[in-house]
Known about the structure:
Helix content: 40-55%
Bound molecules: pyridoxal-5'-phosphate
Shape: globular
Largest sheet: 7 strands, mixed
Order of helices and strands: HEHHEHEHEHEEHEHHEEHEEH
Strand order of the largest sheet: 1-7-6-5-4-2-3
Amino acid sequence: MGAAGAATELAVTEWMLSKVGWQPPDSSGVLVHGGSLANLTALLAARARAFPSAWEQGTPAEAVILVPAGTHVSVARAASILGLGSRAVHPLPCDDLGRTRGERVAEAIELQHRAGRRVMAVIANACAPTTGLYDPLEAMATACRDKRVWLHVDAAHGGSALLVPELRTLLRGIEQADSVTWDAHKMLRTSTLAAAVLIRRSEDLHHALRQSADYLFFNDARTGPDLMHCTVEGSKAELGLKIFLNLAWRGEQGLAAYVHGRHQAARTLWRMVSARNTFEALSEPESNLVCFRYADGNDPHSEVRHIAIRDRLMGQGTFHLASSLVRNRRWWRATVMSPASDQAIFTQLLDTLEIAYQEASY
Ligand SMILES: Cc1ncc(COP(=O)(O)O)c(C=O)c1O
């Protein structure tokens, strides 16, 4: 069924695999409805590798997952769905911006193993949804390889930087991971939803959802692709087609120019924030996410004000800021995604925020 859908899906995942540095048939990918499902699928594959009998026997109680600060909620959700329980999600050592300390990953795995637990997977953020900052993938991959632990890179948002030669270094080492999540509906200008889960060793994807159903899976000798046993979904939309058409229309260079342009625009916003002493930025941006806040010192109402101002802007229909809690402080998070967001709009945003903060009576 869905021959055309399967063909475009294979073409698109092959292209995405090649951007990571992998190729079929050694590596495989499948498209799913969103990054959350992609993370779940990758963790199913990790579970099958760590505990080959888990599909039949259930997940052993000693299984844990190690994650950096700011990991997307879908990872804890997947842990619960997989029967580990969200308590099995343990923090990795991070710096004060929430980036994994690569040199301490081996020790963190070792500590878990000495405590009688078994690390099923380590998660790397590329980039973190809270800050837009990238984990040190190369160091994490080395530690995971030495300890024989699955490394999953959640590049749902930041994977598209792979298309830009100047930004690719942010993802150095990604090819050494075991699995990667990469959403096309984030920075590949594709409509929601379309996400890829890419797996370095094809057999790991084929073992992820190992199941027999003789009314569906039979006649192994037939030719052609069959992706049904690789996804949580049964029927699914023709996810590959919209990525394929988008790629055909804009070209890889067109998409790369868009990603690069948004990263540069985010840096412009960051410079403008830094130039006003009314604001402070969390850090120099590495992606198109910029975290900043009003420089209000020790204002006890700071948290409430930042949230209320964000709500007020959304209520006005002027700007839609996201928000993160980092270093125990509330930050506004601007996701510079629209091609129309430019210096003039950033000036308007900062002016609007300044006025809103001065007028705030909360
Ligand atoms: C890093 C990261 N992972 C996973 C997800 C979940 O993706 P989706 O909303 O497509 O399920 C997101 C969404 O924002 C994300 O930023």
